[in-house]
Amino acid sequence: MNSISFTELGDKGNWIGGALLLPSKVEKLEVTTPYWGRAIATIPLSGRAELDGAVEAATAAWPEWRDTPVGDRTQIMFRFKALMERDYDQIAHLVALENGKTVPEAKGSIDRGIDVVEFATSFTNVLRGNVMNVSNGVSCEALYEPLGVVAGITPFNFPIMVPLWMIPIAITSGNCFILKPSEQTPLSALKIAELLTEAGLPDGVFSVVNGTRNSVEAITDHPNISAVAFVGSSKVAEIVYSQSTANTKRALCLGGAKNHLIVVPDAEEKMTVDGVISSSMGSAGQRCMAASVMVGVEEVQALIHSIVKASAQLKLGEDMGAVISATARERIIGMIDKAEEQGASIILDGRNPQVPNHYEGGYWLGPTIIDHASPEMTCAQEEIFGPVLTIVRTESLQEAMKIENGSPYGNAASVFTTSGAVSRYVSEHASAGMVGINIGVPVPRDPFSFGGWNQSKFGHGDITGTSGLSFWTNLRKVTTRWPAN
Ligand code: NAD
Predict the structure, then answer these.
(1) How far is the CA of 109 from the centre of ligand 1 (A)?
(2) Where exactly are the structural domains of the chain?
(3) Is residue 351 predicted with pLDDT exceeding 60?
(4) Out of 45-59, 85-99, 233-247, 355-369, which region has the weakest mean confidence (pLDDT)?
(5) 187: which of 43, 181, 355, 390 lies 20 to 30 Å off by Cα?
(6) What is the pLDDT of residue 357?
């Protein structure tokens, strides 16, 4: 079933000590579905007191969890994966309902989250450390040790996948984890909590504290939280990174993006059209990996024509979902208006789309393509985070790379070409952490790690794969000598 039905989920709380707690004295916030623009649930706007409760539960649970053999910890991940598969359709509906994605997009995001769970199930192998004789009768051992109580703060655009970039790796390596999900999409996080508990995770090892800025500041200030991972906009990533590290916490904060997709005339047509459209319009453009600027090198008019024709056929509510809020919708329309004012051409206009009848009241925008933009225009510089593709035309590959390199961000860059030389040139010169060759959304799969460069990331290392494991652990080195017989 790929259609969404309106569902009211009532008052939700925080997940602390293995149960849902409804704090009585804090203000509530409505969670709205982008499909209809109507409230589906409420969450508490937690502050220090609620966060303190989660840290206390986590601190109490940690000694036993730290000492639980890694084989027993991975068994919980095996069961968690089976439970996610059991409830796959229900989770996909929840993700779509709270975020506005289509059901197939929601399923794709669950699959990518399950990839990380699968990586964590391999930790009996990955966490075994290293040992070597370094001298006669002397051995050195390196062991991964958990940090203690750690936290993650996540954005609205992937309510299951982004929390799962962190939780399986942090927990299976022996930490107790507190999640502060986006206040716009907090419901999938509570489903993760229910399933982890059903999988046998001891109470206190995983908590969810709902809220906004106050709960984030309570995390970055808390003396018993050792590490903070953040995913969201660059502005907030920088704030969370500065506050966390000023309080001597380990921090890794992934931020926003402006990804470039370079298309040269020898590109294969179908691969290019599909790749450009899925990257720019998928998840209604609300992806940190979305290619929002296509740089066309030399004569690519025929390809642009095919991209516009195919984008115009995307059906709202079936091929493309809604954007997250009325505010986001207004902001995106404002950026399209500005592109027009600055002299670019709107060759596909989604500002007044035909809304599917049964989704009246939702936050809908149609696919939009802005052509003949100059690299200095706002639409080519700033993250739009909506279903908008900006096209900049250049006369050479070198000029195209200059534009890509000029962005302060550095999440992803892609090239569409059938030339090995062109692909090598782009992959060697792009100023981005993740490069795609004939792939519009070049997300690395575990154990390869996810992470950008420049203003798309504050802190060292990546969030998933073995790099994520390094973030959530300390390496203990033991050097041993015994008396000879
Ligand atoms: P956001 O920065 O507004 O919010 C992210 C989190 O920070 C939320 O949990 C929110 O409650 C909290 N927050 C918001 N304002 C805060 C403040 N002033 N102080 C402390 N905490 C605050 O981001 P969003 O709108 O939810 O998500 C979209 C952004 O996330 C885009 O910029 C997108 O590129 C980025 N993103 C990046 C990646 C990546 O891997 N680099 C992945 C997904 C999304």
Answers:
(1) 18
(2) 10-256+452-477, 260-437
(3) yes
(4) 355-369
(5) 355
(6) 76
- Across 327-332, average pLDDT: 98
Mean pLDDT of the chain: 97
Cα(333) to ligand 1 centroid in Å equals 20
Which of 185, 188, 288, 453 for a ligand 1 pocket mutation test, highest count of atoms within 8 Å of Cβ? 288
Is the pLDDT score of 1 beyond 60? Answer: no
Give the pLDDT score at 400: 98
Indicate whether 334 pLDDT > 90: yes
Residues 6+ apart with CB under 8 A from 97: 4, 7, 33, 35, 40, 187
**Is ligand 1 within 6 A of the CB of residue 286?**
no
* Ligand 1 atom, smallest distance to 457 CA: 41
Exposure of 184 in the CB half-sphere (CA atoms within 13 A): 17
First and final CA of the chain: distance in angstroms? 71
255 CA closest ligand 1 atom index: 41
Ligand 1 geometric centre to CA of 186 (Å): 13
Distance 348 CA to ligand 1 centre (A): 29
Instruction: Tell which phi-psi region holds residue 151, choosing left (phi > 0), alpha (psi between -120 and 50) or beta.
Output: beta
The answer to whether residue 252 scores a pLDDT higher than 80 is yes
pTM: 0.97
The tokens 């027009």 sit on which residue? Answer: 340
Ligand 1 contacts CB of residue 456 (under 6 A): yes
Catalytic site positions: 288
Task: Look at residue 25 in the predicted model and tell me its pLDDT.
Answer: 86
CA 465 to chain centre: 14
The pLDDT > 70 percentage for the chain reads 100
Pick the closest to residue 223 from 283, 158, 151, 312 (CA basis): 151
Smallest CA separation from ligand 1 atom 34, residue:
256
**Ligand 1 within 6 A of CB of 183:** yes
Using DSSP bridges, classify how beta strands 259-263 and 412-416 pair: parallel, antiparallel or unpaired: parallel
Q: Which of 208-222, 345-359, 373-387 has the lowest mean pLDDT?
A: 345-359
Q: What is the distance in A from the centroid of ligand 1 to the CA of 63?
A: 32
- Whether 156 lines ligand 1, by a CB cut-off of 6 Å, is yes
User: What is the CATH architecture assignment of 260-437?
Assistant: 3-Layer(aba) Sandwich (3.40)
Tell me the three-class secondary structure of 26-66, residue by residue.
CCEEEEEECCCCEEEEEEECCCHHHHHHHHHHHHHHHHHHH
* The domain over range 10-256+452-477 is classified in CATH as 3.40.50.300: no
